[in-house]
Structure formats: structure tokens, C-alpha cells
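Budget justification, computational time. The allocation requested in the original proposal was used primarily to generate C-alpha cells for proteins on the priority list. As evidence of use, we reproduce two of the resulting records. The first is shown immediately below.
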Amino acid sequence: MSKQRKPADQREKDLRLAMFLIQQGRARHTKAKKLTISAVAEEAG
């Protein structure tokens, strides 16, 4: 693991943003339509 981990508050913000984008149908990186753990993880990066 050469990358530094993000702080918890930044990870939480990324996950919440990914969930919001999927729920609104505006996912950037995926074509996700359903809110699943894997879709959120993939969208959050």
C-alpha cells in the first residue's frame, strides 16, 4: 500500500456523495441505477 489513506471524514464525504449521485441517477463513473454497496464503492473510487 504505497498510497496514504484518506482521513475518515473525507472518506465519509466521498461515500455520501457517491450515494447521493446514484440515488439521483447522475453517477459519474458507473452506470449504476440501484443503490448497492458495490455500486457505492465503485463510484466513490
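The second record produced under the same allocation is shown here.
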Amino acid sequence: MLYSHQSLFRFNSPRFLRPSSTFHLPSTMASSSLVFPSVSLNHHASFDAHDSLSFKSLSSACFGGFKHGHQRFNLGKSRVSMSVSVGSTTAIDDALFANYKPTTAFLFPGQGAQAVGMGQEAHKVPAAAELYNKANEILGFDILDICINGPKEKLDSTVLSQAAIYVSSLAAVEILRARDGGQQIIDSVDVTCGLSLGEYTALAFAGAFSFEDGLKLVKLRGQAMQEAADAAKGAMVSIIGLDSDKVQQLCDAANEEVEEAEKVQIANFLCTGNYAVSGGVKGIEAVEAKAKSFKARMTVRLAVAGAFHTRFMNPALSQLESALSETQIKTPRIPVISNVDAQPHADPETIKKILARQVTSPVQWETTVKTLLSRGLEKSYELGPGKVIAGIVKRMDKTSPIENISV
């Protein structure tokens, strides 16, 4: 989870969240300057009930819009009714997007994708630079300067990296928009998701919350995760060359040799042959010692602050739940796939619960990508620093087109 990108907002709603007609919806986060759609509608939709990839960089990067004008959902035959009205508590069917049929996806990276020097392209695009400026006001320091100049140790910290990646990834949307045909690509996106931290970026792009509110959540998330890591020392290691069943067997064998507090689990189902294990330091050492006997090709200890996406992050839950309860979250305008269950959610209260659970739950990225591909995904874009997600997609399907929009 990293940060790296600046504020691209005019002092009204940012363009990647701005509908073609004027709407207004108050935010509970007082400092947010975004204007949200105030929706009152009945929407009836028909539904049908290896390569050049670096395993080390791919593993480390695992931690960690709505469309302008007409929105397109390729959904098939049973009817679902959604009603949203400002100032009311109208219930939202959480399964609204259950039968989504993706064609074009925006994919956002997670912690580990950061690198000193990112943000230089975004700095050249006024709308992207404006995002960084807005982020500076919220964070209280110059995030773009840290992205471009480092030092690396500072950029790599959990507290800073998550905000840096969040801002930089949304700046990449503006870089794309500034290109010939970029707006048409943005308008064609009908599903989005992000790796761990990237889920927050995806939700911001999809209009579930404002850029400012998302950045505040991401800032708090990084701080809370760091505090949890400091309270209970843990570690993570990537296991290369085994399927998920074998990695689970490896974890079981290691857990037989350590105390309960040191036990490990699979924390990130990244892609076939690359799974991250998280837990106590002694448990991780036992995994590393036994890996070769299970025919693992190699293990890579990850440079992270603690045992992310496990019970070790429980101390972060209450802070996240409190912040999420005070944040205005709306039904996304396109499906946003959750890391927790690899499903899209429409109900704002469910989204809040899922986001809180995410820090203690394994990341289901492999299932997410496989589902997108199996449902007919035609083209995807990785927006933000690095090319980790593109590598994952290519490992699963070499023929699936994916383009990097970097910063």
C-alpha cells in the first residue's frame, strides 16, 4: 500500500467523477470539495440470472468511474430494481452487479508498486498536478516531491506509500484523459478493481466516495496498519512455484512447529505459482526452512512492516470502522470487485464492512482476475506506478490485452 500522486481537482468535482449533468450530494467529510451526484431514480437493469514478469517485484506489490454520460452495464436477464434518493435511507440491493459482464477494466496497483521517480509524467498534466496539490493540503506535506525525489526509505514506508500510490493512480487516469481518445477509453470502462490498497482507488474512480475522502481513509489505513505491525511483530514471504493447495500444506506444516501467536496463513492469492504467506516471524522462518522440501522454486521475504491481511492487523479494524462510518459512501456507478470475496457490492453499508475486513482478510486477486477473464473481459488498463498487474494478467492469459498508463 503506497502513495504517490497529487491532487487533480478543480474546486468542484474532479473530472473522473463528474457526470454529464449537474448533481449535488453533501459529503459528511467536511473538507471535501467534491460535488457528487444527487441521484433520485429507479433503475431497472436486465441481468442473466512467466514472460517478463519479475516474481519478486510482483510479490512485493501485492500489499499493500463512473462513466461520463451514459453508463453501460453488460448485464443479462432477470430484473433488478435500484432506487437511490438523496436524504433518504432507501435500501440498495447489494447484488445489483452480481451478473456483470465486463468488457473494459481499469486495474489499480497496491503497495509495493511505488518507485522513486514516479509522478514525473503526472506533473506535466495540469489536471493530474492539481490532484497532487489537493493531496498536499490533506496530507500536510509535498507528496509529489517524495514520489519524484524520495528518499526511497521514506516512500517505501507503509504510512506514506499507500497515499502516494492512491494519488498517483488517479493521476494516471488524468494522464490517459489528456491523450487523444483517452476520454473515450474512460467512458468505455464497465468494471474496475484494485490490488489491496488499489481497491480504494477503484472505488474513488467509480464514484463511491470523493478523492478527498478516499485519501483520508487511505492515510488513516496506512497509519493504523503501521501501528498494528508495531504492536505485534510479523513478516511476509512470497512462495514461488507452488499451487495454492501446496502452499496451504506448507503453512500447515510450519504451524505444527510454532506457538499459536506465531502461526501463518496465505495472505495474498496473487496468481498461480505466486502466493504470499503472512504471520509471526518464527512461523515465516519455519515456512522458509520447509519450502524446498515442498518443491517450492524459491521464497522471497517481502519488505513490509508486518503481517498484512491476517489477524495481526486486528488492532487496525476499530480505527477503520470508525472512519468508514463517518464517510459518505455511495453505490458505485460501475462494478468494483472486492478483494475479500472477489465480488462486486452495491450497498454502501456492505462496502464499508468489506473495506474494514480487507486488512485482516486474504486478498483474492487470482479469483478476481480469473473471473474477469472468464466473463469475457476484452481489454484492461493498469493505471499507476509499475507493471505488476499487467504481469499477473499475462501469466493467467497471454492473449489478454492490457495497457499500462504510468505516472
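A brief technical remark on that second record: The first strand starts at residue 41 and ends at 47.
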